[in-house]
Design a protein that fits this description.
alpha+beta; three-stranded antiparallel beta sheet; 16% strand; flat
């Protein structure tokens, strides 16, 4: 849609864009194209670009791998609400067909490619959510009615369903707060360049790396001679056969197309990888780009930055959307829902052990709480909070006599708990 048409629609209240406001249909794409003669790729086509696939896969699977916990709050303390219906919905089973991992992968796939992810919320008679069903973003259209009410049109199997906002979980990219920007539509120039480079490389290698060219002869040929030469020397510019060609009578072959080296095809494709990674806010090394820092060389800091600046903001967006759309007012007053970032450390035993030790030694957690995170059974006496000073129970602080003046044997014979 052109910028002019988009502007006119806004004047007459025919809809709103992700960077504007208006009643009617809400659109997530740009009003015009920065580069002429480029069209946005469909989601199916864009995923055939390896870098797009790698970036979407990295973001979606990282978030989907994190457990979603629900906590009950009371008297300034909170505990895991394992028996609550909301816990089972978010942590165990969002619907009858999907695991939580599969559900969030599907949601993030739509979020990252289309800028918006939608899930239909089925509710019990008391209003509590009992299931979440992803809806393809291409089949959902947000609509603002004349009275300002937001509803969603969902087209499926030739039918049209109108869903109230409170029955739709809507995850949004940056935008006007009503809809998010459709990433694929905005990055159309980048994906067009990448797809054309891929197409050119495919044609070149399918042709045996041979450029098209001209066979130059000093005389005018008859029709039969032309056909014979084309049949004989056609493989010179096309085909995969490895043959030796003999040019007679001052014949000369001149290539008409540039070689991949001449047009810097490989460098162009490497640059496309970095450009697409920039669009998805994914470090190129995490998309397996070979032209940057490799595994084991500064990658730990890169991964840490990815978790802080890419993953964490997405988690906050999801948590707030779940709180606003999925939870009832009663649930919001007594429950909180959060992703656990501790799961990101599951692959690093050394870091997990160091963090657990520091929490236990400084009175931030009990041993049984740390054992629970490691799926270990509780131990007797493990619910007591201790601190680093001789690992005393916290209620004994200030009641222990100093032992610095005692000898080694005397200090060993003292019982700090009974002093």
């Amino acid at each position: 849609m052109s910028t002019f048409v988009s502007t006119v629609r806004g004047w007459f209240g025919w809809g709103g864009r992700a960077l504007g406001a208006g009643r009617g249909m809400q659109y997530a794409g740009p009003g015009g194209s920065l580069v002429e003669d480029t069209s946005a790729l469909s989601a199916d086509t864009a995923l055939q670009l390896s870098t797009v696939w790698a970036c979407v896969h990295r973001r979606a699977t990282t978030i989907a791998s994190l457990p979603f916990f629900v906590y009950a709050q009371a008297d300034g303390r909170r505990s895991m609400a394992r028996t609550d219906r909301l816990y089972g919905l978010l942590h165990d089973s969002p619907n009858a067909r999907m695991t939580p991992y599969e559900f969030w992968v599907a949601m993030m796939l739509n979020h990252d490619l289309r800028g918006n992810a939608y899930a239909r919320i089925d509710r019990a008679p008391n209003g509590e959510a009992v299931s979440l069903w992803p809806m393809p973003a291409d089949q959902v259209q947000p609509l603002i009615l004349d009275d300002g009410t937001l509803v969603y049109q969902y087209r499926i199997d030739g039918n049209l369903a109108i869903l109230a906002a409170e029955n739709v979980l809507h995850l949004k990219e940056i935008g006007n707060g009503t809809v998010g920007l459709a990433r694929l539509d905005y990055m159309r120039a980048t994906t067009a360049e990448a797809s054309r480079s891929l197409a050119h490389a495919t044609r070149t290698w399918a042709n045996g790396g041979k450029p098209s060219g001209a066979l130059m002869i000093d005389s005018v040929l008859k029709q039969g001679q032309r056909e014979a030469l084309l049949e004989r020397f056609g493989e010179m510019a096309r085909g995969n056969a490895a043959r030796l060609f003999l040019l007679e009578a001052n014949m000369k072959y001149q290539a008409l197309t540039l070689s991949p080296e001449d047009i810097e095809l490989l460098d162009s494709r490497k640059f496309s990888v970095e450009e697409i990674c920039r669009w998805f806010d994914v470090p190129p090394v995490l998309a397996h780009h070979s032209n940057v820092t490799t595994w084991g060389s500064g990658v730990e800091q890169i991964v840490d930055g990815f978790h802080k600046f890419t993953v964490r903001p997405l988690l906050v967006s999801i948590e707030q959307a779940v709180t606003k759309r999925v939870m009832t007012p009663n649930q919001r007053s007594r429950l909180t829902a959060e992703f656990s970032l501790d799961a990101l450390l599951r692959g690093n035993a050394k870091d997990r052990a160091e963090i657990a030790a520091k929490k236990v030694q400084n009175g931030l957690a009990t041993r049984n709480e740390m054992r629970q995170l490691e799926n270990e059974p509780p131990v007797e006496g493990g619910n007591v909070i201790t601190v680093q000073a001789n690992l005393l129970p916290i209620h004994m602080l200030g009641k222990v006599k100093p032992t610095t003046s005692l000898g080694a044997s005397d200090a060993a014979s003292q019982d700090p708990v009974t002093q």
